[in-house]
Amino acid sequence: MTTVDLIVQGGTVVSATREVRADVAIHQGRIVRVGPVDDLRATRVIDAAGCHVLPGIIDAHTHPVYADDLASTARAGIAGGVTTTIAFIAAFPSWGFPKTGPAEVADAYIAEWDGRPAGDFALHVAFDSHDDPAVEVPELIRRGITSFKFFTAYPRRGMMVDDRSLIAGLEVVGKAGGIAAVHAENGHGIDFLESRLWDTPDLPNETFLQCHTHLFETEAVLRVISLAEAVGCPLYIPHLAAGDGIEVVGLARRTARVPVWIETCPHYLVLTNDEVLRRGALSKIAPPLRETGDNERLWAAVADGMIQVVGTDHAGRTLASKAEGANILQAPFGAEGIEHLLPLMYGEGVAGGRLSLRRMVAVLAENPADLFDLPAKGRIEEGKDADLVILDPDGRTACTAADHAGASDYCLYEGREVPGRVRHTIKGGRVLLDDGVLADDLTGGRYLARRPLGRRPVPVLDGVPTP
Predict the structure, then answer these.
(1) How many CB atoms are closer than 10 A to CB 358?
(2) d(CA 105, CA 111)
(3) In 3D, which of 64, 154, 165, 166 has the Cα closest to residue 117?
(4) 9-12, long-range: CB < 8 A, 24+ apart
(5) For residue range 367-377, what is the model confidence (pLDDT) as tens digits?
(6) What gap in Å lies between CA 210 and CA 205, rounded to an integer?
(7) Radius of gyration over alpha carbons of the chain, in Å?
């Protein structure tokens, strides 16, 4: 009888297309069988009866540059079932990196972190107006980095690029086989409104919302799509918050000759701008939290395939850092979230009747794996990496800072309790979360180099057309 390292027994294995009762055998970090295991014995057997067995979650949008570094971000992810992260890095002093070439930043980051975090990681690289994508993109692709971010916001932080620089950068990315991600807000409009109030003390919290209007986001989404379409660049719009943006994307997809993929985040699905009014800077993110109607439209878009990916935009902050600045406009952006990604999507989405279990697996695992070229991830199939999550539908998860595995000492979702509990997280065959308890050794995560489009097919997610 053959011996394997681990068998996950008696659970329901879930993919984007089916749910089937099956055992999963794991050996030397890979899945070696999905199905009957009567002829196998294992060093360890995990009883998953009554539980959902999911592929390890991929958080395609993280910023491990503030209170959380990559190790604590990955640790928090493991606590919530996330086994792979894609981190944004850049030659941005505001993110804690030196203002050198982006390829040099990437080299140093990979050298520092390969093998150290609990989960595997890939990288996105962001550019500002000082970077030259024509020089940097080929260098970064040689390093296995194939997705690149631009900002149409944050002129005060030196991160915004104007439309001419943006379309030139998009053309470079598209020709090289990359995917461009663009933060879509009207930075000049926001800056105009904020500048008049920037040094005013004790501003009311609603000032931030008034300066980041709904249409400033929706307009920028359409503008960015039009620029990408003009130069043939596949486009990824991260962290969509405005429900009207869905209509704009639908309009553009009917005529655009490039694929346009959309991401939203759990906070845009379950929170509203009442949190900003109530908690101020603790809930300050960009784009900002919107209205209940936006929540509903985004949930519908996740369910029907208009939105392909749900990531967190995780940016761990502390109470002390959020208190910086003379008013809410000067307070820093960002909030934690990776720990709550799967619990919220299951508890508020699946258990809440807003989307199916299969659809949740698509947007949290299969779609990001296909889009960002992580071929060993995203599915429970023979030969894939043994990254699994065992989710107990009868358990419950309380969102509270007291339980954070990351560095944030406050919780964006404090006081919320949802159905479902992550019981076990398995990464590369190692049980890193064992009945809710994190392992002592949370290292070993690998850097994942990726291929550009042209060396692999353009992914078709949820029917989004390809050129």
Answers:
(1) 15
(2) 10
(3) 64
(4) 9/37, 9/45, 9/46, 9/47, 9/48, 9/49, 10/47, 10/48, 10/49, 10/50, 11/48, 11/49, 11/50, 11/51, 11/52, 11/53, 11/390, 12/51, 12/52, 12/53
(5) 999 999 999 99
(6) 9
(7) 21
- Name the CA dihedral angle for 224, 227, 231, 235, rounded to a multiple of 10 degrees: 10
DSSP lists the bridge partners of residue 33 as 25
pLDDT, tens digit (0-9, with 9 covering 90-100), for 419-444: 999 999 999 999 999 999 999 999 99
Q: Peptide bond before 238: cis, by omega within 30 degrees of 0?
A: no
Residue at token pair 């040094």: 199
Give the span between the Cα atoms of 168 and 420, in whole angstroms. 46
Residue pair 423/395 in contact (Cβ under 8 Å)? The answer is: yes
Strands (E), 235-364: 235-237, 260-264, 309-310
Eight-state DSSP code of residue 447: B
Residue 426 and residue 84 in contact, taking contact as beta carbons nearer than 8 Å: no
Instruction: Please state, in angstroms and as integers, the Cα–Cα distance from residue 232 to each residue in 227, 238, 256, 257, 465, following that order.
Output: 9, 19, 9, 7, 13
CA 253 to chain centre: 23
The structural domains of the chain, ordered by start, are 56-371 (3.20.20.140)
**Does 466 have pLDDT greater than 70?**
no
From CA 182, how far away is CA 248, in angstroms rounded?
Answer: 15
End-to-end CA distance of the chain: 51
The H-or-E segment that residue 386 falls in is none
Q: List the beta strands (DSSP E) in 67-146.
A: 82-90, 120-126
Helix (H) or strand (E) holding 25: strand 24-27
C-alpha 437/C-alpha 440 separation (Å) is 9
| pLDDT, tens digit (0-9, with 9 covering 90-100), for 161-192 | 999 999 999 999 999 999 999 999 999 999 99
